[in-house]
Amino acid sequence: MREGVPRLGPAPREAYLKACWYVAGWADRLGNEPQDRVFLEEPVALFRDEQGVAHAVGGRCPHRFAPLGQGRVVEGTLACPYHGLRFDGTGACVFNPHPGGQLPAARLPVYPLVERHGLLWIWMGDAAHADPAAIPDFGWLADPAWDVVRGATRAEGHYELYSDNILDLSHANFVHPALVASAFTEGERRFWQDGDTVHAEYVQMGAPLSQGIGAMLGRVGELQDFYGEVTWHAPAVLRFDFIAGPPGTPREACTLLPSLHAFTPETPDTTHYVWATGRDFALGDAGFSEAMRGALEHAFEREDMPIIRDSHRLMRGHDFWDLKPWVLNGDGGGIRARRMLQRLIARERGQDQDSAA
Amino acid sequence: MREGVPRLGPAPREAYLKACWYVAGWADRLGNEPQDRVFLEEPVALFRDEQGVAHAVGGRCPHRFAPLGQGRVVEGTLACPYHGLRFDGTGACVFNPHPGGQLPAARLPVYPLVERHGLLWIWMGDAAHADPAAIPDFGWLADPAWDVVRGATRAEGHYELYSDNILDLSHANFVHPALVASAFTEGERRFWQDGDTVHAEYVQMGAPLSQGIGAMLGRVGELQDFYGEVTWHAPAVLRFDFIAGPPGTPREACTLLPSLHAFTPETPDTTHYVWATGRDFALGDAGFSEAMRGALEHAFEREDMPIIRDSHRLMRGHDFWDLKPWVLNGDGGGIRARRMLQRLIARERGQDQDSAA
Amino acid sequence: MREGVPRLGPAPREAYLKACWYVAGWADRLGNEPQDRVFLEEPVALFRDEQGVAHAVGGRCPHRFAPLGQGRVVEGTLACPYHGLRFDGTGACVFNPHPGGQLPAARLPVYPLVERHGLLWIWMGDAAHADPAAIPDFGWLADPAWDVVRGATRAEGHYELYSDNILDLSHANFVHPALVASAFTEGERRFWQDGDTVHAEYVQMGAPLSQGIGAMLGRVGELQDFYGEVTWHAPAVLRFDFIAGPPGTPREACTLLPSLHAFTPETPDTTHYVWATGRDFALGDAGFSEAMRGALEHAFEREDMPIIRDSHRLMRGHDFWDLKPWVLNGDGGGIRARRMLQRLIARERGQDQDSAA
Which H or E run includes A266? Predict the structure, then answer.
């Protein structure tokens, strides 16, 4: 974040779902140096203590408002880069290097942070309800049976536009022609809900494999049966299984490329985008991994992101529904997810008002 | 427009003259690829159908708000870059590649677009009143008797500041000393109206020719008689004739360099600037053309634009008249044009209200 | 200021102290070319007349709002870059190059400007009260007994955050560890007022000298006695004396490095930062000077400025006191200065209202 903290309004402009798990980043990228982030328009500092446990605390020093995540970790505590106050993972000020050295009693906000499957998951709501059992299962990310390529970036555009993008796989033919081709544009699709989860399934038999994935699988120019399965977890954590095999192959015997697409709002206009794709073949082949990583990064950062950025700008700050979007055959997933999220946010805010009353 | 769609407010901030012809760009720069533009704070997509006819439609896809002008032309229709809906020049959705494939009945906005004299002219108002006969005559742009150099750029600053700039040729001595020198600063000037058109005329006898134009005309260091004629067509399309000849030469026998300066508002703070200058000598001399193009581009983009950008910023969002500008001898054209435009906009809005009532 | 005039609101957003001396820049950097600046959200043009006397006038031409400070100096007057009107140091229009050439009677705003100790000092309030005797004494800047290194830059962040930074020397150990080390973090400190001036004093005996200053003084690895003295003049002009010597050295016999840190608000979010540091040894040693200048520029521009920029952004536009900052032992200077400035501004505005009544 070389360009500095994003500019923020006096208070968050948008109502977010807070009592849920957001992806805060890749666990192994949080090392000895802390990180400064903005999630849901709130500054957050991430750091590891001496036991290596990752913590998330409010990212603004209460003394002179410096970005704590730009500080240093000293003896397992987070030291402010400006005047050296140190905070522990409970948000308590544990060291004041200045003469006198009294420790202020007030605390930083603390956000439950869980390290699982190679990811850091952060809970921005009431800590009392933070149940790690609610974290979606991405076990393949940490399973040696899978080789994983991955990335993390900041993207312009509202986070719901990014989850819409994954739920509507039909875009792939137009946005990623070299990589995905028509696999998910013309086939059958089905959308349904399961509790708070939304599912999208795309099935297309005997369609051409793209140059890109054909080369990856060693099946250039072959027809394939395709299955695309997307699972959306509120508010914007998605799994996408790309499944393909020679015509007639049983689905379970097809090649599976599972993906994670996790979107965490930074501001109403910007989104943290964390992604990964796994494979269970060519394990340990670094050249293969690098080619795959490059192709996916190109698809997400050079093909998806500019279109979503400009779609976001063309919405001109209007509410999605107020713009009366045309509903096409591929929108069943995105619309279910948007409505579900709306309900969850309304419910959470209703509860907040109840508990405030 | 690599940097993406400009950021726009929820609705246009400014009242523009809509029932008039604006320059949308150079016709030959619209080829097989569509273009995305913003005119009068409205997104527009330009494309050519299979017959080569250019069309202008609303630039935001009604499905998911993607920038249509970043799509592709497929079989003469404009295909959305995101999910592949296709639209024809009437704004109708003519192809839905998704299963089911119903065609929504709603249409894109359509803007009359006329190709004339090498330019695309767009009408942003009620199409029923779009009369191509009202397009100003720039026949020399397409006349083989003239060689034309030209350009197109985006400029920061309100479009009226840009037309003021051309109407007041006296700036040339200060902003473009190498190119124009004092030709139009000290001579006589006359301003008048003719219907909705505003004219400015500058006459100066026996003044020094600049290094730049002197070299161009092969008359370095000579005195010349100068005539500068500017014609303004609402809202901001101007012709400027630079006329010079040895002292005593009849005006009709002098060298004429006609110019087009067309300004189309993108936003209240940014302007599309399309320009051209012609000559009827050194025809076919590519080196001459390139030197001339370079000198003019430097003058417009490096000399005019920064001053107008900063003048715009120094207005701090205030209305021009509220700032009580000093009126000098060269302002007769700009002031007439501003008042005319104000009247035309008020009249148009009055009509709109009448027809709405 | 290649990127153009900063964007300004319709009127200043903030209440500044106006009847006081601000640093407008280094005197010797104002030569034959004028300069355009924004101080206190007002555009200002600086130029020298034929006698070499520096003047400050309103930076927006009343004709067409061009940035006068981007013009030229012609016969000791400031010529507008756009249409050539010329103004003298009294703000009067003294030349109109256009036919007719009447001189408008209205005048530019004029700001008292004094050249002293190598600096230009500007008074943004009622000129009748501009008393050069109130300019703080920085005689060492112009005294041949001192070699001075210096700089000037634009910094993001509110100007009071920048004066806070100097008044609380305890930051040096954290922000500038290589340059200052712990000299002012653990010792005693004392803060007091003296009329409208605020003082901060830091004393620490027998502490380690940093690598950076140790190398500069030829005393690497030695313990030193340290004295840090900061004097704040409203609104944001500070002197900082760094004093160090071998343990037991009388204070007057220690090495003194005096510094100027002058902050002039450009906008509520940006600050002109003018700094200098002197030494009375290694006089005339250009290599020494260059190393010293580089080290200080690095400290101010690469270490202080990013933290203060981000602290400013993390304040999210809130008032400093509304954020209930924790008060530490090093804040006695900054808090006194903030309160003093608040009183001075309130007093000035009260007077303005009285005189308006």
Answer: strand A255-267
**C323 vs C343: CA distance, rounded Å:** 20
**Same domain (yes/no): A204, A340:** yes
Q: How far apart are CA B335 and CA B326, in angstroms?
A: 11
Alpha carbon separation from A311 to B170, B255, C347 (Å, rounded): 44, 50, 51
Q: Which portions of chain A are predicted below pLDDT 70? A: 1-2, 353-357
Name the nearest CA neighbour of B279 among B339, B322, B218: B218
Distance (Å) from the alpha carbon of A177 to chain C's nearest alpha carbon: 40
ipTM: 0.95
Assigned domain for C7 exists = no
Note whether B172 and B232 are same-domain residues.
yes
Chain B residues within 8 A of A189 when measuring between CB atoms = 99
B295 pLDDT above the threshold of 80: yes
Tell me whether strands C42-48 and C54-58 are parallel, antiparallel or unpaired: antiparallel
- Residue C59 shares a structural domain with residue C147: no
With 0.80 as the threshold, say if the pTM is over it.
Answer: yes
Which sign does the torsion angle of CA C59, C61, C67, C69 carry?
A: negative
Distance from CA of C91 to the nearest CA of B (A): 15
Q: Return the amino acid letter for C293.
A: R
Q: Are residues C124 and C155 in the same domain?
A: no
Domain count, chain A: 2
For B203-232, how does the pLDDT look when each residue is reduced to its tens digit (9 = 90+)? Answer: 999 998 888 888 888 888 889 999 999 999
Residue-level pLDDT at B1: 40
Scanning C89-242, the segments in alpha helix (DSSP H) are 159-167, 172-175, 211-217
- Say if residues A247 and A275 touch (Cβ distance below 8 Å): no
The 10s digit of each residue's pLDDT in C101-149 is 889 989 999 999 999 999 999 999 999 999 999 999 999 999 999 999 9
Size of interface A-B (CB pairs under 8 A): 93
A112 lies within 8 A of chain B by CB: no
